[in-house]
Amino acid sequence: MTEPLTHLDDRFWNRLLKAVEEGQVVPVVGSQLLGWPDQGRIQTLQQRVALRVLAFYRIDTASLQLTPQRELHEVVTLLKNTANLQDLYADIAEALDAELREPAFKLPTAIEKLAAIASFRLLVTLTPDTLLAQALRKRCAVNEIIHSPNLPTSEAGDLAADWLKKPGEVNLLYLFGKAQSTPVFAIHDEDTLEYAHNLLSRGSNVPLRFLGELQQRGLLFIGTNFPDWLSRFLLRLTNQTRLSDKKTRAWLVNDGQTQPELCQFLQGFSRETEIISDLSPQAFVDELYSRWLARNTPSSDQTGSENRNPLPDPASVAFFISYSRASDLPAAEKLYQTLRETGLAENEIWFDRTSIEPGGDFQQLIYAGIRGCRYFLPLISTAADRFDEKFFYREWNAAIDRSKGISGREFVVPIILDEEYNPQAYTRVPKQWADNIDFGYAPGGSADARTRQHLTKLIRELRRGEQP
């Protein structure tokens, strides 16, 4: 049988990216994407967790042949006859935590790249771990929405009615629950069936608003590798009409050969669903991210200013310098040089030198830089404080919005450029900064000893976090 495969030419990528940039595509992330290269193959998080759980029960794995992408279900099936089934949820949650606590643990590259695509505002994860949420928090605040029939009502949630008005936030749906020590996430096929039934019957804690948005958008299933019946169900659940009348698009990106029965079914009854199998999920995300970045990094012609410096990849930004281009460019230049002298590479600093207010497309790239940076440096001056409307105020608001999702670490580092150090003197500086943050001091852009020491400390913390 001929599979309904998609030819990945430039026309395909351009069409897909146009829909992504318009907010019409939602990635649905499966377990295949949560993997790391291991001797020419991909070792998945599911495989690592399954082996840890077997080790908890002192079971020799040498004689076991676990099916790739089915390891967790098979381990639970093996253990549930001798172990307390409810205990297995806590064991799996502990195994997940143990993986994330490993000193050498790193987020999968594919997950980091997918999360760095700032056009994605709605995302769905089909696994109970927090890897996608962790990657997303590198660029923005994350509103986690959990679907679980057994979750306490106080912990359930749904998409906010005004979610489109929150540019510094993305929304992540855990469709099959989020790992805890209790049975509030799916760990085997029977769990998955119950979660699917709960969605179909509109039972407990179903995020109806989020599902409504999914039904109106194209879905990009990446590395889901679900059984045939579940793939069909999810496609139907996220469509407003029967599949043969489907108006929205869907793409299935899987590693390996897709079930021939599913291919035949989609070819006959859902021609708006395309199967992509000539690229692995990781390779597909690599290409998607590379092409999105190329389309969203403006040239000097696009920005209308030859003195605009090439800006770094938003996912690599460590420090974002926000300042009034009309009044404080020379001081900002000095502070930029201080950061470079303190050990930062050029591509780790977001510093836009132009004095021209950015256009619409470039504004989105700026917001991506704010969502991706480790530290946000607003430069404060009397000259800037006189303006009642400038773009840097939008940058400040985006940083404030992102800071709501950050806990336990420093993010906003305001620096005063005036000769007089008086954080309370500025009428337009956000009150939460003036009341709660120790401002740095760099008169004319020349950082004093205390501020240099503080910036050096932040860079050291950044480097420690990068070490494997």
Question: Which helices and strands occur, and which strands form pairs?
Answer:
Layout: H1 10-21, E1 25-29, E2 35-38, E3 41-44, H2 45-56, H3 71-79, H4 85-101, H5 109-116, E4 122-125, H6 131-136, E5 141-146, E6 169-174, H7 189-200, H8 208-215, E7 218-222, H9 228-237, E8 250-253, H10 260-269, E9 273-276, H11 281-295, H12 300-303, E10 319-322, H13 329-341, E11 349-350, H14 360-372, E12 375-380, H15 382-385, H16 391-403, E13 415-416, H17 431-436, E14 440-441, H18 449-466
Helix pairs in contact: 2-4, 5-11, 7-9, 14-16
- Report the principal-axis shape: globular
Could you give the count of β-strands? 14
First-residue to last-residue Cα separation: 46 Å
Could you tell me the CATH topology label of the largest domain.
Answer: Rossmann fold
Q: What is the CATH top level name of the largest domain?
A: Alpha Beta
Report the portion of residues in β strands: 5-15%
The largest sheet, given as strand count, sense and whether it forms a barrel, is: 7 strands, parallel
Total discrete domains: 2
- Average pLDDT: 85
Radius of gyration: 24 Å
The CATH level-2 architecture of the largest domain is identified as 3-Layer(aba) Sandwich
Unreliable runs: 300-308
How would you write the strand order of the largest sheet?
Answer: 5-6-4-1-7-8-9
In CATH terms, the superfamily of the largest domain is TPP-binding domain
Q: Approximately how much helix is present in the residues?
A: 40-55%
Helical element count? 18
Structural class: alpha/beta
